Amino acid sequence: MMKELVEKIKKEGKVLPGDIVKVDSFINHQIDVDFMEKIGEEFYKLFKNEKVTKVLTIETSGILAACETAKRFKCKVVYGKKGNHKNQSNDFYETKVYSYTKGEEYLVKVSKDYISKDDNILIIDDFLANGAAVGGMIDIINKAGAKLLGVGIIIEKGFQKGGDELRKRGIKLESLAIIDSIDIDKKIIKFRGE
Amino acid sequence: MMKELVEKIKKEGKVLPGDIVKVDSFINHQIDVDFMEKIGEEFYKLFKNEKVTKVLTIETSGILAACETAKRFKCKVVYGKKGNHKNQSNDFYETKVYSYTKGEEYLVKVSKDYISKDDNILIIDDFLANGAAVGGMIDIINKAGAKLLGVGIIIEKGFQKGGDELRKRGIKLESLAIIDSIDIDKKIIKFRGE
Prior knowledge:
The structure is a homodimer of 194-residue chains.
Chain A: H1 3-12, E1 14-16, E2 20-22, E3 30-31, H2 33-47, E4 54-58, H3 63-73, E5 76-83, E6 92-99, E7 104-111, E8 120-128, H4 132-144, E9 147-157, H5 162-168, E10 173-183, E11 188-191
Parallel strand pairs in A: 4-5, 4-8, 8-9, 9-10
Antiparallel strand pairs in A: 1-2, 5-7, 6-7, 10-11
């Protein structure tokens, strides 16, 4: 648990119907670049014993956290591109991801040029809820024959299934803040460990 | 002209039909985080006499350059969100942008919470060709009543109209590399100043 992040979510996060916590003042729309450096530093601390060769995320809102983390591992970032059109070429690893927020499926693709079986990959993303996006990234890592070292998440919705499913599979998951419940009427967010 | 960038485009850029230069090994898909720090440093040097209060870009591929620049101005980034659905609420500034690459129009929106008439804004983006995306950002800045200080572009396609149109309007435009022509057969990219 990153205390400063929890405080920032409490101060700036907006609770909306549908168990949504909007953090668009510092992550999702406006970006607090200084704070995101601290996020990168925190992920580095949590995974620093791993030999990370690449950080993987999906566009858009996890990109800066991924980059701030990658800097500290002195490696590059690859972000999966979203699209709806199946690629005709054989140059990409592709996977389908179901977005619960939008109620639709989209394709994520990663060029075979930028991820290989020699890579040791750390996944970074801003949110983890049902785990669909992370699941898609793991699928791509498997297709490439690369090694998954772990998953770093800024905000996990602990009352949804994604996090526990990853833990059950023995995947090293580090979430900087875990939300256990959201009271929409009182606008109260309850964090794990409080 | 940023010499190191020109060298990197020559070394890693791929020339594709339709005057496309793909730089997805370090900007557009894989991100070379160390190199993007240098890009941010370069933009800072070019605009450091301006009192920038916010850096504006559109998702996705300009975000890291925008963040690296904003850090040096000690300000925040706002990235315009792409979408197709007109917003019912009155919380956003919206503009239409025509994508020549995709041959379709999309909406870009920026929350009124994160850009105001008191802001002095620097626009940062990865590519400038016809100027549609930058034009959309200027429209949003105007709608917010904010002040546009200038535009920083990583790669300008000098043979397309966007750059010259901005210069004619008296807007301070700084492009780190300007491509004057692309020879698709010989795979040669000619840069301005060479």
